[in-house]
């Protein structure tokens, strides 16, 4: 999203002026505006905390039309940002559904931050694929989480701006012809994981020598050519032509181009593999609207509704077994392209090793 996946994505853009500021509604400063003026609204609300560019307006509006429940969305750009906000609020942040990636879903389960799901209220979860059940080792029976999307970040190249003959693997970021015209995600596990896999190691390794080698590789080969590590604004800069090649989730870049220009983008998943994510829908332990949250998750998993999500971003049906029958678009990549990709796992106390190495990658000259 880890589809974590950071970046990954605005949900429910404001299309009319906000009528009401929800200033003191919740302790964490939920100042999101109502973005749905449906006449069927019954005054109830559901609060989502999701990645940027990740929930089609059409789905949110359809849910409100059917249930009368307004959906109000705040966005985050990284798992770390999301987790810090939730922890700072002590669980009392007012959100109902949050969309963490696999590793942070695991952490939140262990910290007892999540509500155990009532599967009697989630009949459509039966459509989850066998593959995502196998990959979701942190919660294989979906006791606390329901997969929203499983995918990977790749590389987007503006073919109208770059010289030809570039490598279609992670070492495109070592190409000096694109120096100061490229970005990589400001995401520790994505960047370090991709470097580790590029070097032939596991993206979840805790071997100090392997981690040090990956750190050196990034600093010496990729970082000198980057404008910055960016998880928020790179999509718009790619769309404007400022950046030529970016480490990205597909929705971040395609959303910035009219579909008539999509042929100008070369988006690829490096064949050597990389870090794969499962972004999940979870209900917080202190969620104020648990019944509405269950209803929304089940609504998302209706085949015809989930197909709308996939069509919006031209994504493959990696977590849903029945949506393909309703899809009207061709995905930008296929589930087969994920063959060499590995889920980002919870590292426990070893996460500090990555944090220290990432700090030096990010801030050392």
TrEMBL record:
Superkingdom of the source species: Bacteria
Keyword 4Fe-4S: no
Signal peptide: 1-28
Example of a GO biological process term: polyamine transport
Compartments it resides in: Periplasm
Any Pfam family hit: SBP_bac_8
SUPFAM superfamilies on file: Periplasmic binding protein-like II
Positions annotated to bind spermidine: 187-190
Record-given protein name: Extracellular solute-binding protein family 1
Organism from which the protein derives: Parasphaerochaeta coccoides (strain ATCC BAA-1237 / DSM 17374 / SPN1)
């Amino acid at each position: 999203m880890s589809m974590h996946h950071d970046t990954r994505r605005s949900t429910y853009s404001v299309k009319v002026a906000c009528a009401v500021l929800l200033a003191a509604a919740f302790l964490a400063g939920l100042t999101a505006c109502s973005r749905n003026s449906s006449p069927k609204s019954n005054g109830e609300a559901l609060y989502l905390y999701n990645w940027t560019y990740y929930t089609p307006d059409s789905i949110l509006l359809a849910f409100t039309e059917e249930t009368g429940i307004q959906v109000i969305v705040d966005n985050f750009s990284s798992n770390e940002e999301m987790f810090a906000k939730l922890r700072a609020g002590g669980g009392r942040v007012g959100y109902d559904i949050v969309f963490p990636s696999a590793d942070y879903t695991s952490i939140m389960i262990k910290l007892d931050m999540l509500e155990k799901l009532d599967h009697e209220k989630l009949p459509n979860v039966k459509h989850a694929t066998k593959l995502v059940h196998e990959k979701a080792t942190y919660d294989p029976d979906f006791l606390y989480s329901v997969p929203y999307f499983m995918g990977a970040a790749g590389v987007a190249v503006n073919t109208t701006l770059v010289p030809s003959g570039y490598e279609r693997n992670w070492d495109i970021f070592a190409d000096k012809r694109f120096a100061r015209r490229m970005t990589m995600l400001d995401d520790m596990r994505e960047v370090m994981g991709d470097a580790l896999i590029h070097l032939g190691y596991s993206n979840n390794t805790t071997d100090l020598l392997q981690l040090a080698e990956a750190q050196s590789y990034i600093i010496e080969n990729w970082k000198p050519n980057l404008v910055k590590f960016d998880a928020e604004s790179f999509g718009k800069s790619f769309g404007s032509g400022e950046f030529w090649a970016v480490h990205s989730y597909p929705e971040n870049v395609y959303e910035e181009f009219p579909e008539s220009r999509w042929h100008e983008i070369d988006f690829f998943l490096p064949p050597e593999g990389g870090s794969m994510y499962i972004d999940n829908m979870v209900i917080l332990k202190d969620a104020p609207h648990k019944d509405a949250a269950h209803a929304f998750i089940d609504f998302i998993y209706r085949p015809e509704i989930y197909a709308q999500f996939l069509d919006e971003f031209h994504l493959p049906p990696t977590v849903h077994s029945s949506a393909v029958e309703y899809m009207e678009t061709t995905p930008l990549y296929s589930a087969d392209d994920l063959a060499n990709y590995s889920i980002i796992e919870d590292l426990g106390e070893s996460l500090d090793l990555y944090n220290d190495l990432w700090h030096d990658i990010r801030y050392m000259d």
